[in-house]
């Protein structure tokens, strides 16, 4: 948690109170945020594929381990399938459907569930051989990053990596548990059979995660291929995260006891509770569990709610204690190379907590100060509007939304001419000529939310500037639920 040195209290308060200067079409942004996932698909594409410039890719994934690992998502602008962030993406798509699906049109909810199922169908494959082994990743990051080629042309190694049961993988398995358990709730009404499959596998995966504790990236067999890209700094938050989602999905007291007994030992009250994203889940754990305290008066879990409340209070500069940081233009940031990852995840938690407060007719208590749920929502709306173009650069950071958005993003498939126009393959090295070209990307990755500006609200852009112009699935996934809320609540428009 960094001290909030980038904002002046009065300035931020004004930002939170004043209405946005630019009206936004949240319905359009929501549709596009979900459509983005079709541009990230790996495997054989369905007839209903709407991102028409994409084609089939990586149809032999898993062959080196004699298994089928075709499908899933490329996490960002490269062509590797990292299972840890993919699972987090699925968890957030599921949470968006669970808590904000009522704000979506039937069509939008349907597309969101399709995007979710593309992920969970694949995640089921990653744990299909439990308890003997778990699949970690497909593709070798360094050879992949040495090439600039569209996924349809890949000639880099598609090596699949797995860990046998003797090696711990609690963080990876814990996140997959969360994804499958959350998805089981999301599909419970529309596809009960699939929901049961997901929940049964989530329960089995959690047992595997908890039985041999440790981080998957501590294992020599996968460390060099996963790190430094998605290296884990601990596994205890994922065990709490998985248990919390299983508690919500099942209501079984075993998971309640697990959460009670392991809260302090697993660090749910340490300083990392101010973080939330693909790597650290504690902020999400506390907010998720707070729902039971609000709605079921489950006082034994009150410490989780109390910690969640500390994080919520940190967004208000007039409160005591640590504070979240803002850019001069009002964007939440918390360090890291991609600003909008943190913004998207934190916005989701703020909006979710506001919803829990409203449904229980409560306010946020920050010492002697009280805040209505709408105070949290105004902070989130400021973030969303900033992303959509109400920012110092007057630039939309969602590709394809608005009139001004970056045209040279760090994304192989988007930057290389499509197979529908140029069926002949581009070679590994040939693609670098395109990478360095000043010409706009020929394929618009509609709905992609990119890394965004720096801490001073400046945006240089360009394909070479990956921290600013690379999209990721785990930036978009939290925004789905957030955009759904504002689409259906015109008083904030």
Automatic annotation (TrEMBL):
Annotated Glycoside hydrolase family domain residues: 26-483
Record InterPro entries: 6-hairpin_glycosidase_sf, 6hp_glycosidase-like_sf, Glyco_hydro_9, Glyco_hydro_9_His_AS
Catalyzed reactions: Endohydrolysis of (1->4)-beta-D-glucosidic linkages in cellulose, lichenin and cereal beta-D-glucans
Active site: 410
Signal peptide: 1-23
Keywords from the UniProt entry: Carbohydrate metabolism, Cell wall biogenesis/degradation, Cellulose degradation, Glycosidase, Hydrolase, Polysaccharide degradation, Signal
One Pfam family in the UniProt entry: Glyco_hydro_9
First-tier enzyme category under EC: hydrolase
EC code: 3.2.1.4
Family per similarity comment: Belongs to the glycosyl hydrolase 9 (cellulase E) family.
Name of the protein described by the UniProt record: Endoglucanase
Natural source organism: Camelina sativa (False flax)
Gene, per the UniProt record: LOC104729201
